[in-house]
Specification:
- This protein is an alpha+beta fold.
- The chain contains seven helices and five strands, in the order ααααββαββαβα.
- 13% of the residues are buried.
Length: 214
């Protein structure tokens, strides 16, 4: 007896919310999901949202229950849309800072901060930079107790271009990415009989040396 061959079922996932299209209405990007589905999968769109499809889906509901479900969904969508709008405004108001820190006259490290609001996996990005630039890269805490990426070498321009492209993929072209040079402060003159009186730099260079492999 021959075995019955069962063809695999193709499952489509929405590129906006990542749900199957049948569940997009329960997310906060329903209108965007519908626009994407109508453009990319018009037949599936018709089967879900045509007048006949909507009528069939609600035929077993009472008018009162149907209205309540519709109101609840609209309320949830408005709440999610407001939340997403607040998050977007926070991202657009943020700034990514790329600091060039001189360790010696010939050696520099790059410190990248301000990426935490973009939901970027910092450890993964550090590994990407280490591989891309064939250098050392790690994640540490800055003076504000926030994650930043430390990269060995003078690769500020390349890092800036990569981050700009990364943000552009998410439509965040208005986010500022700024490079600054940060050099250790010069030593203060030593007053007679008062010891060395060395000034401390903004960054703890001993911490950077411990984190990075020369």
């Amino acid at each position: 007896m021959s075995e019955v061959q069962i063809a695999p079922k193709e499952v489509i996932y929405c590129e906006v919310c990542s749900f199957p299209p049948e569940y997009c209405e329960f997310g906060g990007t329903f209108n965007k999901c519908k626009a994407w589905l109508e453009k990319e999968h018009p037949q599936l769109f018709q089967s879900l949202y045509s007048a006949d499809a909507l009528a069939a889906a609600t035929s077993s509901l009472s008018l009162e229950k149907e209205e309540k479900i519709s109101q609840d969904l609209q309320k949830k969508r408005r709440k999610e849309e407001k939340k997403q709008e607040r998050e977007l405004q926070q991202k657009l108001a943020s700034k990514v800072l790329i600091k060039k820190i001189a360790r010696t006259k010939r050696k520099q490290v790059i410190a990248i901060s301000g990426l935490e609001v973009f939901n970027i996996d910092m450890k993964k990005l550090a590994k990407t930079f280490a591989s891309k630039f064939a250098t050392g890269a790690s994640v540490t805490k800055n003076l504000e107790k926030k994650d930043e990426i430390i990269i060995q070498g003078d690769v500020g321009d390349e890092v800036e271009q990569y981050i700009l492209e990364l943000l552009e993929k998410d439509g965040l072209t208005e986010v500022k990415v700024e490079q600054v040079d940060e050099k250790p402060k010069k030593k203060k003159p030593t007053a007679p009989g008062t010891g060395t009186g060395n000034a401390t730099s903004t960054y703890d260079t001993s911490q950077i040396n411990d984190l990075l492999i020369l």
